[in-house]
Amino acid sequence: xxxxxxxxxxxxxxxxxxxxxxxxxxxxxxxxxxxxxxxxxxxxxxxxxxxxxxxxxxxxxxxxxxxxxxxxxxxxxxxxxxxxxxxxxxxxxxxxxxxxxxxxxxxxxxxxxxxxxxxxxxxxxxxxxxxxxxxxxxxxxxxxxxxxxxxxxxxxxxxxxxxxxxxxxxxxxxxxxxxxxxxxxxxxxxxxxxxxxxxxxxxxxxxxxxxxxxxxxxxxxxxxxxxxxxxxxxxxxxxxxxxxxxxxxxxxxxxxxxxxxxxxxxxxxxxxxxxxxxxxxxxxxxxxxxxxxxxxxxxxxxxxxxxxxxxxxxxxxxxxxxxxxxxxxxxxxxxxxxxxxxxxxxxxxxxxxxxxxxxxxxxxxxxxxxxxxxxxxxxxxxxxxxxxxxxxxxxxxxxxxxxxxxxxxxxxxxxxxxxxxxxxxxxxxxxxxxxxxxxxxxxxxxxxxxxxxxxx
Length: 456
Hints:
The chain is an alpha+beta fold. Helix content is 17%, strand content 35%. The N and C termini lie far apart (63 Å).
């Protein structure tokens, strides 16, 4: 069968349209489909960033020994050497000259210079930086700037086509294309843990950091941040900070020069199918409150261990990391409505988010456990201070290294309920346990503290 070029072109066009591309998504240039028209309108808003800073010069550890130091002329102050690095940035406000980039691109910078593909160069001022989300905000004084329109990253779907724009390896502005491979990725790359990454297979390489991830309409959906590169090069797994998260950071950087993270005051873990079954719950996603920090906003609002937080301001919370991100990016002093499940009943409580002290926990997942091996129990002795005041079972010992130990159960704890069923004796506890070999949840009293421990 002879296939004509005209027939092939019609089939190709039909195939493209079947993927959902609008006519505006592809510019036709001499019959070639592409996104050149879209790129021409936004690439001038993606800039190169050059950073000059300093780093400590490594020295032989023996030089810290006074015996050896006396034989060498070693300065008292640590020596430093100049270092240079490069990255990318995105103009988000042309009128004010605001540029988004990554914190790690400008960290410890003495001088920051922004340049364009037309060889213009200008020095930039650092407005503020947030290591928790790896976002930084710069400001430049320059004429003729162009910015990129912002999208709503909450509308993204896996499979959406995207383009990454940046300056990989310092070779100059480069565009790569791909799709959204996954959403809400938690990778552990960021030690601060405020991660909600867009994952893409569009090639992102060193130097792309701080560059733009855009949709095929030319709207900014994310700031390229990191890659997983076992061999040192791109393997099709890149990550971007969603623009909604980045702009929440920008608001605080503009107002305070830093991010003042909110604190709820709870220890949390994910709600998993085992716990749903054990407690006969009607919800399948949420963050389970393991403990409440005394005198915290959560404590003042009446949130209790065992509550399952399912929403913040009517936005669904699908797990511990989601709650941690949401609260951590909420400005301290803000009033929010926490939706929670208690005894299979939905409740809404109002909370004023507090400031985050250094030791506060905004929602780190609790340690995991899977069983009760190694735990010794007894009825509460008559000479125990809790006798007659608390109904429950006394934990007399917990084997170090056991699963219950790893989950946080301690000798001296008093278990008052298992899977929300009150227990008043060791026999009652063991009888219940014999018929429940899967996940169990314990209400525990430890001194003046109430805990909710999950044993998987």
